Amino acid sequence: MASGFTTSNGSFLLKGHEWEISNIDPVLKIFHKCNDKGIPCERIWPIALPAKYITFGSEQPSKIMDIGILNLEVVLFRESRECVVNRQQHSTDY
Fold this sequence. Notes:
One of its GO terms (cellular component) is extracellular region. This protein is mainly β and 94 residues long. The protein has a domain at 28-88.
C-alpha cells in the first residue's frame, strides 16, 4: 500500500490506499538494525493499525495516527528478521 524512509530526525509520513471488496488489516512494518549486535539482516517491527485509522471509500484519510517516539533497542515479542537486498539506503525529507 505504501512504503517510505525516515527523515534525518527519524520522522516519517506514510499514506496508502487500496480498493478491496473485503476488510483490510493494514500493518506498519518498521525495518531497522538498531542494537542488533552485528546479526545479519534487518529487524522487523510489525505494528497493526487500529480500525479507526482506516477510511472507507476515499483515498484521503479521515484520521492521522501518531505512533509517537519508539525506542528501537527493545526486542519485541513478535519481532522477526528479513534480509533485504535491494532496499535503498537513504533518508527522505517530506
